[in-house]
Specification:
The structure is a homodimer. The first copy, chain A, is mainly alpha-helical. Chain A contains nine helices and no strands.
Amino acid sequence: MTARETASATRRLAILEAARTVFLRHGYMGASMDEVAALAGASKQTVYKHFIDKETLFNELVLTTLRATADSVQAEVLDLRDSGDLAADLRDLARRQLTRVIQPDLLQLRRLVIGEAGRFPELGRAFYELGLGRTITALTDVFRNLTERGLLTVDDAPLAAEHFNWLVVSIPLNRAMFFGDDRPATPAQLRRYADRGVDVFLAAYGTTSR
Amino acid sequence: MTARETASATRRLAILEAARTVFLRHGYMGASMDEVAALAGASKQTVYKHFIDKETLFNELVLTTLRATADSVQAEVLDLRDSGDLAADLRDLARRQLTRVIQPDLLQLRRLVIGEAGRFPELGRAFYELGLGRTITALTDVFRNLTERGLLTVDDAPLAAEHFNWLVVSIPLNRAMFFGDDRPATPAQLRRYADRGVDVFLAAYGTTSR
């Protein structure tokens, strides 16, 4: 990268960070490119050079945030293939997955995207595919593999992958959708949701009866 | 009711119906009391006499819609106490519950409320309590009862109630949040999600091993 390219990339990141603050504070409709520019310490012209309009900036913000999270989830899920202690490793994965899904910034973006899904159906779809979609694909792959090794009894791997995911995340995630940042779940509650979700999953798809 | 009170109640309903159309079409920020009045065939003055401002009208619309759904869910859940064939009755309940949760109007209101949860935390909380909250309370009661009768092995009834609910509804509900009205689940898919969710629930909380 030339010095000029580096400076441009740095400015782009600064604009995205400013956009995160402004969109999370005011919602999509209430956010203005003026405020983003002011907060990023850039001219409006520079903001528009990087992001052609408010919709593009919002899209980029959401997709960049999601991609970073999805990459690490996917890597962790695939590690399960080498599991020596499946129950313990599933609990560990569940706890980490839940902790990530429940991050305040990601929750707020999720609320924004859901609220605007009627207006921006493509963004809704992208959020779904990049977020849950990639997790489900990785879990499906791993559950097939573990069933071949005799460690799980999964007949429909994509369905079992969804069951695993929702048994772990749905209770606190749904609360967070409606309660905003009010009364977030405690770490002890999150661990319990993860562990008990895994118990139910293994009762249905595990190989030893309880 | 006097004739005058009846006319007033009828007008109130007409305004709520118009509000449903306008809010679902434009979202909260985009909706105007002018458009609601025009669609209801009422004067703006009349609209404001019934609902003091846009926020109040939106709240009433959401809560009225939710209350109607929650009442029938609760009655159906409580019927489970007399179940003679638990697996069949749980599947039946699950299918009906899912059909109701997935109604387009309710889904759209849910998206609107989630999108505005930061601005209207009380409405978010009310949606949660009136909707899921009442279902969970009823399921908790019934699962305790069925465990006493030896038909389930539930140790933590509120948690089992949440597991039941999310095993049944989460897959299509989450898709619908992000996909808008695009590609809705087919009735056959919904039945399958309901039935397979019940299978997992019974594997964990039923009394006979599979």
